[in-house]
Design goal:
By secondary structure, the protein is an alpha/beta fold. Helix content is 36%, strand content 14%. The strands form two sheets. A five-stranded mixed beta sheet has the order 1-2-7-6-3, with helices on both faces. Strands 4-5 form a two-stranded antiparallel sheet. β6, α8 and β7 form a beta-alpha-beta unit. α4 crosses α6. It starts with a helix and ends with a strand.
Length: 233
Amino acid sequence: MRQFGNDLFGYAADWCFPKTCLGCGADGCLLCPHCRLNSDWRVRRICPVCHRELALGELCHKSRLENLWSLSPYEGLMIQLIKNFKYDGVIDLADEVFREGLEKFLILRPALPEKSIIVPVPLHRKKFLRRGFNQSEIIAQILSNQLFRPIAADLLRRKVNNKPQARQDFESRIRNVQGIFEVDYRHLSGYYGCRILLVDDVYTTGSTLGECAGELAKAGFGDISAITLAFGG
């Protein structure tokens, strides 16, 4: 009965607020087949410092991240999709569009050890209450369901409600996130010794994920990787 009610609500919402393609404006879906064909979904292993795509096993610049995977360049339509998802609350994009790219990451399941946890980059409480969701946690939930790895949303905490990164230049972005995260040691014992997969929407300067990885490393975690929907920008 609950599923029927949810479906009925969804049908009513689609009827009252019909979906249009965010790429070209065609009716019926958030991303039409033509625009999907132009999406550049492909699992890339990226150097966290210079953004160069790396071959399997290749090393580049030293980083706190063992691996950084990303699914699309942050350009063109991808910029618009992530802004709609993150700032306009079009969370259906996660299931209807972003899942397609995330499923390509599932072929790397052997690269994610059994004793791994998925850690979404946290939002500050004030921002979460205003927005109503954490976009990184929604992405993490899709990965968790498919990879059968738990989400540790309580391990990291954003203690400072910093300004949005998108409004900062390169150097300001680095300063903007310094010291804003901390490990919640109340929950550390439940995760200690696990390998970590950090999840965020976009990797630009690397400052956000770098700060998260740094705090986790201080707490004793030694194998930290990350995945984002997009990179660059």
